[in-house]
Write a structure and sequence with these properties.
This protein has 14 helices and 12 strands. It is of the alpha/beta class. The chain folds into 3 domains: 2-93 and 282-303, NadA-like (Rossmann fold), CATH 3.40.50; 97-180, NadA-like (Rossmann fold, 3-Layer(aba) Sandwich), CATH 3.40.50; 188-272, Rossmann fold (3-Layer(aba) Sandwich). The protein has a 4-stranded parallel beta sheet with strand order 2-1-3-4, with helices on both faces. The longest helix has 24 residues, at 2-25. The protein is globular. The model has no long low-confidence stretch (mean pLDDT 91). Bound molecules: 1,3-dihydroxyacetonephosphate (13P) and iron/sulfur cluster. Residues 33, 48-49, 122, 136-137, 180, 208, 233-234 line the site of 1,3-dihydroxyacetonephosphate.
């Protein structure tokens, strides 16, 4: 009991110190929807990849404390070169972004001259610099639809998002065989069991999920009910839950999203498709590290100008497609 009170006091002190430093530095704190609840709660803006990129670019701040993973902080730095972008832990990487290097992409492009490369935002700046367009889970379908139909397209690196975009656009593309280790674990078996237990629940799926191709296949086979099934980005899930009259939802993505879902929807219930769908990279950011980051102005994420210039073109196309 005494220990619990002491740690609450400590957390309160940390939050006031973060708030004081934020004002002193003219800083803004941005957090992804998968961040720890206490980190989301101190952020000025919580959102998905697209929302974070747009907010970082528009923010009237000198410093951005980016509570998310490294490629997201890189994106903000490329779009806002005049701002200092800091990530509280440099080890916060992404298993999906690690599935492709710029050198691999260059070699692939050599074998397919004239191909249009669309890279998911979960890629390094080096890979973005080799791409024609970037996209996020929110606008991937729109980005691909904006490319003339006679062009050959390669979508990197997420094979599940790629399969989803192929299905939605009706267009055959080359797909890179990458996947995220968290979303790949979300299997149709677990989902079928949960859906059987909660037949009235709506089903929210992130397009990175291993169950997406399975879900599309199973939908086709009639094995997972198509009723109340929504394939959405993390912000799309939040909007869907807010606007729905349903009171139960099964959520197939990283479990950090449950914090915003429950906060924004008192009276509604959310069930994770898998309790251990946890991204350890996202969880590397803690309140304590946010404090050190603001106090010591660490760790700056800066992309070399030549790479940033090329990547910016692909990113600006992404941000401008609604
Ligand atoms: P969103 O853009 O939907 O938030 O997804 C980002 C991500 O990394 C999912 O794993
Ligand atoms: Fe990357 Fe997967 Fe973590 Fe998203 S959940 S940041 S794709 S490792």
């Amino acid at each position: 009991m005494v220990l619990q009170e002491a740690s609450l006091e400590l957390k309160g002190d940390l939050v006031s110190e973060i708030t004081r430093l934020k004002l002193e530095r003219n800083a803004i704190i941005l957090a992804h929807n998968y961040q720890r609840p206490e980190v989301q709660d101190i952020a000025d803006f919580v959102g998905d990849s697209l929302g974070l990129a747009r907010t970082a670019a528009a923010a009237d701040a000198d410093v951005i404390i980016f509570c998310g993973v490294h490629f997201m902080a890189e994106t903000s730095s490329i779009l806002s070169p005049e701002k200092k972008v800091l990530i509280p832990d440099l080890n916060a990487g992404c298993s999906l972004a690690d599935t492709i290097t710029a050198e691999e992409l260059r070699r692939w492009k050599k074998r397919h001259p004239g191909v249009v490369v669309v890279s998911y935002v979960n890629t390094t700046a080096d890979v973005k610099a080799e791409s024609d367009y970037c996209c996020t889970s929110t606008n991937a379908v729109k980005v691909v639809n904006s490319i003339p139909a006679d062009k050959e397209v390669l979508l990197v690196p997420d094979i599940y998002l790629g399969a989803y975009v192929e299905r939605m656009t009706g267009r055959r593309m080359h797909l890179w065989p990458g996947q995220c280790h968290v979303h790949a674990k979300l299997t149709p078996e677990a989902i079928t069991r949960l859906r059987d237990e909660r037949p009235n629940a709506e089903f929210l799926i992130h397009p990175e999920c291993g169950c997406i191709t399975n879900a599309m296949y199973y939908l086709g086979e009639g094995k997972i009910s198509g009723k109340g099934t929504h394939i959405l980005s993390t912000d799309g899930m939040l909007k869907c839950a807010r606007n729905s009259t349903s009171t139960e939802f099964i959520v197939a993505t990283e479990t950090g999203i449950l914090h915003q879902l429950t906060k924004q929807n008192p009276g509604k219930q959310f069930f994770p498709a898998k309790d251990d769908a946890v991204c350890e990279y996202m969880k590397m950011i803690t309140l304590q590290k946010v404090h050190y980051s603001l106090r010591d102005m660490i760790h700056e994420v800066k992309v070399p100008a030549a790479i940033a210039g090329k990547a910016r073109l692909a990113l600006e196309r992404m941000v401008s497609v609604n």
